[in-house]
């Protein structure tokens, strides 16, 4: 069985939730403290053993390519100023064993279409899809947990989490049966159903490990009413022919496609940032009148070791 070596990062989409910030810069470059969202996503993929990063980009997204490219100017300035540690930091953004490949999605025809744009670069092997506006935080990295499940069952794996019923309209929602504590055999999947029609409260977070058979299903789909080809619809078709699993990952998802999720990520990451955590912690307590704020609990929880998943290599 082939391992998972390649990951697709669909980054062509235009964001409207963060306008005007994202008018001229990609939403994937929004920083949480000092690192852009796309870099968190790439680090997670590299942590899962991925060595080929395929970015499906569009107009106005060139800066993502620049971010993962060598920057002679920045490195020269840092060297001249004797900031060797920062030279190391910028050089480590793309480790030398990792390759970045860019392909353009000329029209905004949906997530399924974006994945289809990478078909030739993927070929006939399993691959991951990583949506950078879902910032997933966990140990081991969430994609590494999924690759482990994939290797064990030799089936496509979708990352899922339990959501509030009112949030069904922002997720692909699965139906299925638990195999063990965290693994669900998917019987069907519906894209963004209304709460009354949602088959469960397990929604897809933006991580997928897919068999290459997905491409045939993507090619067979016609655009939906919004003119988009949905990855969820192709997964639903795939499920009719082969097993698809959902995996309740160990960790936390921040929906950085929304302002609230983005601010929550920023606060939690600041609370454990090497440079910031003490001063930010003190400031936040004072700001909240000495009260124990809700975010505090989350920040502390994040600092604790994640519950291990049985059989997962650390
Ligand atoms: C996409 C998928 C959806 C999934 C979600 C996760 O939606 O279509 O099935 O649950 O990502 O974030 P989007 O958030 O791009 O609208």
UniProtKB/TrEMBL annotation:
One of its GO terms (molecular function) is UTP:glucose-1-phosphate uridylyltransferase activity. Belongs to the UDPGP type 2 family. Its EC number is 2.7.7.9. This is UTP--glucose-1-phosphate uridylyltransferase. It catalyses: alpha-D-glucose 1-phosphate + UTP + H(+) = UDP-alpha-D-glucose + diphosphate. It comes from Paraburkholderia lycopersici. GO terms for biological process: UDP-alpha-D-glucose metabolic process. Keywords: Nucleotidyltransferase, Transferase. Residues 13-267 form the Nucleotidyl transferase domain. Pfam families: NTP_transferase. The keyword Nucleotidyltransferase applies. Gene3D superfamilies: Spore Coat Polysaccharide Biosynthesis Protein SpsA, Chain A. The keyword Transferase applies.
